[in-house]
Amino acid sequence: MIDTTTGLYTLARQCPSPNCDQRPEGCVPDLIVLHNITLPPYEFGGNWIDQLFTNQLDPQAHPFFATIQHLRVASHILIRREGEVVQYVPFHQRAFHAGVSRYQGRERCNDFSIGIEIEGTDFEPFTAAQYQMLERLLLELVQAYPTLSLEHITGHEHIAPGRKTDPGPYFDWQRLSERLGVKLPADAGNVLGQFA
After folding, report:
1. Adjacent-strand bridge partners of 86
2. 160 inside domain
3. How many CB atoms lie within 10 A of CB 102?
4. pTM here?
5. Residue 155 maps to a domain
6. CA geometry: angle 57, 141, 156, nearest 5 deg
7. Distance CA 105, CA 43 (A)
8. Are 127 and 108 contacting, i.e. CB atoms less than 8 angstroms apart?
């Protein structure tokens, strides 16, 4: 379901973002970073995330938007609450999702990672449909890209501690570890709630 020639996920709705560029020469994706996002904060639905990631967010549409509309950011993929997948950046390109970050001694995680946003917050469980789609996508990614490994999946909070908190305490790392059959470094067993 992943076309390695184009870097596109065939199950995803395509919403191309300009917030990407070529990875540094010789740099290949070998890390997957999980995030959460809602726009406006703590509200689900709408097309605001698409607008943010394509630099079309109307600063007048919500007071919060005026504080972020200048950002030039995008993940590779978004998984909506009902399991819909949206792709903004081809996997072989560098998406602007992680910012200042460090993983196992390596800086600038955007250079070597794939970013997956999950529609959600730090304060409530994610949905069963999201976990099912995430698990499927992760397995397809490591099959399509030999440099990726299920052991190298982490959260934004782990590569930018003190600056970021997502995917947050409600993300079920233990479930993900069990479903994928690996022990994830981020599996701290601190899940506050099971999936909805």
Report:
1. 13, 78
2. yes
3. 14
4. 0.95
5. yes
6. 50
7. 35
8. no
Query: What's the structural domain count of the chain?
Result: 1
pLDDT tens for residues 30-80?
999 999 999 999 999 999 999 999 999 999 999 999 999 999 999 999 999
Position with higher pLDDT, 180 vs 190: 180
Tell me whether residue 75 is in a domain: yes
CA 102 to chain centre: 16
Domain that holds residue 41: 2-180
Q: Which of 25, 82, 117, 124 is catalytic?
A: 117
Angle at 16 between CA 13 and CA 18, to 5 degrees: 160
CATH number at residue 6: 3.40.80.10
The helix-helix angle for 173-180 and 128-144 (nearest 10°) equals 50
Element (H, E) at 142: helix 128-144
For residues 76-89, b (16+ Cβ closer than 10 Å) or e, as one string? Answer: bbbbbbebebbbbb
**Pair of tokens at residue 130:** 């999201």
Give the distance, in angstroms, between the CA of residue 161 and the centroid of all CA atoms in the same chain: 16
Strand pairing partners for 33?
A: 115, 154
168 is a domain residue:
yes
Closest by CA to 116, choosing from 72, 170, 166, 67, is: 166
Concerning whether 157 is annotated as a catalytic residue, the answer is no
